[in-house]
Amino acid sequence: MEKIYLDYAATTPVRPEVIKAMEPYWSEIFGNPSEPHGWGQQARVAIEESRNKIADFLGAKTQEIIFTSCATESINLAHKGLVEAVGNRSSVAGKPHVITSEIEHKAVLETCRHLEKSGMAEVTYLPVDKYGLVKVKDLEKAIKSNTVLVSVMYVNNEVGTIEPIAEIGQMIKVKSQKYGRKIYFHTDATQGIQYLDCHVDKLGVDLLSFTGHKFYAPKGVGVLYVRDGVPLIRQQDGGGQERDLRSGTENTPYIVGLGRAVELVGGEGKLRAIELTKLRDKLIKEILKRIPDSILTGSPDRRAPHIASFCFKGAEGEAILLRLDAEGIAASSGSACTSGSLRPSHVLLAMGIPPEVAHGSIRFSLGRKTTEEEIDYVLKVLPGVIDGIRKMAPKL
Ligand code: PLP
């Protein structure tokens, strides 16, 4: 058996079709897209074609698509740019208020912490239920007269829970009308872009972020969708590229690759989602059956097709990962090794999972090349891995 990669939520390989689309833009069509000469204008055309593809995919207008270097940058621009833009408006009573959830990716959480620390905004971190779901009613109650931005992720990257984005979007619209001023809504769609409907009007979002490398485009290119009329102050000063929201010479090959990858998602996303859901469900059902004291983390039904996540009581996540790696299987753990101490994932803790259980977390994330044979191999190997670790663990 070849090595088995089940960490597609961390990153994906670049598809051959994407590499092919990018090829001419390294040394043939290499001009600076801001230059008026032929070389530059050929690159400009390619960038605008890619922008069109992404706008089509999101149901957005072309000028609403801003290219960045990654989701993290898009998220920073969305949050800081918006808070800065609305901060001085007299229509906002007091310091701008931002609402987000406790289970966001660090890109959102750390940006919000920065806004708090710098005194630019006050932030509410909403708790979630045991499945990692944000309750729309809780969110509604948290909205205040100075709330300017709500930011909730589409799909949680650790447990795969799909948040009720369209429902939140609708509620925010009603609240905005009631207050007679706009409350802006951002979603981090990084883990949703491949398999879920990302039509911005259906979701009711004003800002949406994602990154290329989660769906077979290269690392180092991302998108921020900015609905027309959303006030945003650039966070990078310079030559005024990307409607003066993101200065810096555009990365033509990567932008072209991103456009091609989005096109390919549009063509096969739904079909692949159905296939992956079957494989994911087999993995979940069999792991829970074959391994005692195993817990599915995240929602049993509102779950992205590519993510299956578990906690194994009495077995430590990092140890499981290393043993799996030795068996040729790449997965991921929610725990992050910080300053030498293993801290359980903030997502699992927010879902009410006790720290000692959260230490045993593992995420398998499936992708284009995942086969039933691979899933069967994991099911064959994993029970022995967990059992072996449990036997070696010191008894408390
Ligand atoms: N948001 C989510 C949900 C993610 O899964 C990730 C990547 O792991 C990011 C944001 C950040 O993506 P990038 O590192 O490409 O900026």
- The total count of strands amounts to 14
In the CATH hierarchy, the third-tier topology of the largest domain is known as Aspartate Aminotransferase, domain 2
Widest sheet: strand ordering: 2-8-7-6-5-3-4
Total count of helical runs of at least 4 residues: 14
| Helix and strand run | EHHHEHEHEHEHEHEEHHEEHEEEHHEH
Domains (count): 2
N- to C-terminal distance: 37 Å
The ligands found in this model are:
pyridoxal-5'-phosphate
User: Describe the biggest sheet?
Assistant: 7 strands, mixed
Describe the structure.
With 396 residues, the chain is of the alpha/beta class. The chain folds into two domains: 4-11 and 269-395, Aspartate Aminotransferase, domain 1; 16-264, Type I PLP-dependent aspartate aminotransferase-like (Major domain) (Aspartate Aminotransferase, domain 2), CATH 3.40.640.10. It has 14 helices and 14 strands. It has helices at residues 16-22, 24-27, 38-58, 71-87, 106-117, 136-142, 165-179, 200-203, 241-244, 252-290, 317-326, 346-350, 355-358, 372-392, and strands at residues 4-5, 65-68, 97-101, 122-126, 147-151, 184-188, 207-211, 222-226, 294-296, 307-312, 329-330, 336-338, 341-343, 361-365. Strands 2-8-7-6-5-3-4 form a seven-stranded mixed beta sheet, with helices on both faces. Strands 9-10-14 form a three-stranded antiparallel beta sheet. A two-stranded parallel sheet has the order 1-11. Strand 5, helix 7 and strand 6 form a beta-alpha-beta unit. Helix 10 crosses helix 14. The longest helix is centred in the C-terminal third of the chain and has 39 residues, at 252-290. The protein is globular, with a radius of gyration of 22 Å. It binds pyridoxal-5'-phosphate.
